[in-house]
Automatic annotation (TrEMBL):
Name of the featured protein: M20 family metallo-hydrolase
Source organism: Microvirga alba
Domain (Peptidase M20 dimerisation) ranges: 219-318
PANTHER family in the record: ALLANTOATE AMIDOHYDROLASE, ALLANTOATE DEIMINASE-RELATED
Coiled-coil region(s): none
InterPro entries with a match to the protein in the record: Amidase_Cbmase, Bact_exopeptidase_dim_dom, Peptidase_M20, Peptidase_M20_dimer
Length: 420
């Protein structure tokens, strides 16, 4: 019978939640305690199968689509209504941690289990989702699943993206889907009443403030690029420097000048995280240098200003070499739906968990869903703000608190209360 004097958050099991985190961490476990679980890989498919198994134990129905997004549906009293979608991703960086993305998926599953345990079925259906290739470490750029779902980019376009070995997203997705057992396919995109994503902060703000819950106000803008500098190979001992077409030296000049251009304002985020040199031999003048640029700032005008400088600098510093600059991603800063943020804040207040507004410096699938339906995010602290690292850590009590706020927010939205 329904226990109307209690809320779903009362039924969250922190031990079960933690155990599922540790169980998923075994898929792609590294010797240093981290996780290497590339998108659309065999090891991610194994983790996906585990999530499906947990869902089926609860009576949830799995679904998938052409890009291997995974959905677990808990039917509401009125299946004709648009569902509440809640989740994140399970792929990782090559040197990733146990919590990035996974927390959002496992917390969503725990939320549904708590609602089932409560004994009262919501009006709207709830679907747990694990989006494909959020990280973009194997297939760049990331957020493939949420982009395909929302139509931000077409599946046909995304299918062509290749990893370092020449495997396309289409080939990798088909391999993963071939391993599914009795999981029906649905078309990409369907009406969604709201989307919620729980995540570790990946920054130090909450930990420094001593606050366990962050109500995410928005996500900063970003541009991402790939730069290919083409020169000419030559003998390191005989080719005069004045006559060389040294691709690496040209790239270094570009990177140094771009770094200086992005020093103001001080909160501009600029990263060159990828640099490949060819032929990469000690006695050969480099014939090619290929590098990435990741640019982020909360103000779009700052991002646009540095973008102009990047384009000017790459041409100005190429010297005798050729340069090709390709922008692979561009996303404007955004502010999440006021009504969803208010619902998260109310849920935290009801169970006496301190919360604060916080801006997301990192990108998430919620960025794409923001343009599809009312969307919100819940952050929990991570130790020293470390993420994308084996040192990534979240305290069990914060994970439990995040799941409790998440489930009560889901319940309010799924029972048809304002704003839906």
């Amino acid at each position: 019978m329904p226990q109307t004097n209690r809320r779903p958050s009362d039924f969250v099991d922190g031990s079960r939640l933690w155990d599922r985190h540790m169980a998923l961490a075994r898929f792609g476990a590294r010797e240093d305690g981290g996780v290497d679980r590339p998108a659309l890989s065999g090891v991610e498919a194994d983790a996906r199968a585990q999530i499906v198994a947990w869902g089926r134990e609860l009576g949830l129905r799995p679904f998938t689509d052409a890009v291997a997004n995974l959905f677990l549906r808990y039917e509401g009293r009125d299946p004709s209504l648009a569902p509440i979608l809640v989740g994140s991703h399970i792929d990782s960086q090559p040197t990733g941690g146990k919590f990035d993305g996974v927390f959002g998926v496992v917390a969503a599953l725990e939320a549904v289990q708590a609602i089932i345990t409560q004994g009262e079925r919501p009006l709207r259906s709830i679907e747990v989702v694990a989006w494909t290739n959020e990280e973009g470490s194997r297939f760049a750029p990331g957020m493939t699943g949420s982009e395909a779902f929302t139509g931000t980019r077409s599946a046909k376009e995304l299918f062509k993206i290749q990893d370092a070995k020449g495997v396309t997203i289409q080939e990798a997705a088909e391999a993963v889907l071939s391993r599914d057992i009795d999981i029906p396919h649905r078309a990409l995109g369907f009406p969604v009443a709201a989307f919620l994503e729980a995540h570790i902060e990946q920054g130090p703000v909450l930990e420094k403030a001593g606050i366990p819950i962050g109500v995410v106000s928005g996500i900063q803008g970003t541009r991402r690029y790939r730069v290919r500098v083409t020169g000419e190979a030559a003998h390191a001992g005989t080719a005069l420097r004045a006559e060389r077409k040294d691709a690496l030296m040209a790239a270094i000049r570009m990177i140094s000048a771009i770094d200086r251009a992005a020093l103001e304002p001080a909160d501009t985020m600029l990263t060159v995280g990828l640099l490949n040199v060819s032929p990469n031999a000690p006695s050969v003048v480099p014939a090619e240098a290929f590098f990435s640029i990741d640019l982020r700032h909360p103000q779009d005008e700052i991002v646009d200003q540095v973008d102009s400088e990047i384009r000017r600098i790459t041409e100005a510093e190429k010297g005798p070499c050729e340069v090709a600059l390709t922008q692979i991603a561009h996303a404007r800063s955004l502010t999440f739906a006021t009504e969803i943020r208010a619902a998260i804040t109310r849920a935290a207040q009801r169970i006496d968990v301190p919360s604060m507004d916080i801006y997301s410096a990192a990108g998430h699938d919620a960025r794409q869903l923001h343009y599809w339906c009312p969307t919100g995010m819940i952050f929990i602290p991570c130790h020293e703000g470390i993420s994308h690292s084996p040192e990534e850590w979240a305290e069990p009590e914060h994970i439990t608190a995040g799941a409790r706020v998440l489930v009560d927010t889901i319940w309010d939205l799924a029972t048809g209360k304002p704003p839906l």
